[in-house]
Design brief:
With about 220 residues, the chain is α/β, with parallel strands linked by helices. The protein is about 35% helix and about 20% strand. The protein contains 8 helices and 8 strands, in the order E-H-E-H-E-H-E-H-E-E-H-E-H-E-H-H. An 8-stranded parallel sheet has the order 1-8-7-6-5-4-3-2. Helix 1 runs parallel beside helix 8 and helix 2 packs parallel to helix 3 (about 75-80). The protein is globular and about 40 Å long. The termini are close together. Bound molecules: D-xylitol-5-phosphate and zinc ion. D-xylitol-5-phosphate (DX5) binds near residues 10, 65, 143, 172 and 174.
Length: about 220
């Protein structure tokens, strides 16, 4: 089953709890949480305190995407705040293996993300240790950007390389009218921010994503 992971980066933070409950009702399995530090990316978002406070209100899988320099400094805090999956950027650390080990030491699922300019070969040696690979299909930092075509090829490569059961996730510029290409190319987890939270009816829009993803997946078999 394809997992839809709405990104709260585009949510209305004045009513975050209600908005997360709407995606849950709409059938999302993951909620994607973008953490930015103003260093690795030119934007600042939220930290462990926000994650801890929303943790009490939903059973969704917390898919935490760390866009921060030297993420090893904060893995413990995000694990303790309630993350289920912690994804770090290979470009942000000198010790990617240490990050993966640390995430796993807290019994969390470990993910690694690659920016648009980073090839799959940069993480080839660690793929066997991962629970998730996150392909960025926009430059990390902001929601609402256009999908970068070169992500298609990376998804195809990962589909060949990754053991079954691993999450192959794609993040950035995904809408109802291009979700078919990412699924057909190999993604089994799809992040969508503005396309979900920018809709008038968030629950209904989530359901449209979930139903369409399942339909496309059924066609792929
Ligand atoms: C961008 C973030 C994305 C973002 C996607 O750096 O990692 O998760 O929220 O937003 P959309 O779906 O609007 O491109
Ligand atoms: Zn993200």
């Amino acid at each position: 089953m394809i997992k839809i992971a709405p990104s709260i980066l585009s949510a209305d933070f004045s009513c975050l709890k209600e908005q997360i409950q709407q995606i849950e009702k709409g059938g999302a399995k993951y909620v994607h949480i973008d953490v930015m530090d103003g260093m690795f990316v030119p934007n600042i978002t939220m930290g462990p305190v926000v994650i801890e406070s929303i943790r009490k209100h939903t059973d969704l899988v917390f898919d935490v995407h760390l866009m921060i320099e030297e993420p090893e400094r904060y893995i413990k805090e995000f694990a303790e705040a309630g993350a289920d999956i912690i994804t770090v950027h290979v470009e942000a650390t000198k010790d990617i293996r240490g990050c993966i080990e640390k995430i796993k030491s807290f019994k969390k699922r470990a993910g690694v993300s690659i920016k648009p300019a980073t090839p799959v070969s940069a993480i080839k040696d660690i793929l066997g240790e991962l629970d998730m690979v996150l392909v960025m299909s926009v430059e990390p930092g902001f929601g609402g950007q256009k999908y970068i075509d070169s992500a298609d090829e990376k998804l195809r490569e990962l589909k060949e390389l990754m053991p079954a059961g691993t999450d192959i996730s794609v993040d950035g510029g995904i809408k109802l009218d291009n979700i078919d290409r990412v699924i057909k190319n190999g993604a089994n987890t799809v992040v969508a921010g503005s396309a979900v939270f920018g809709a008038e009816n968030i629950e209904e829009q989530t359901r449209l994503f979930v139903d369409l993803a399942n339909k496309i997946e059924a066609q792929c078999v």
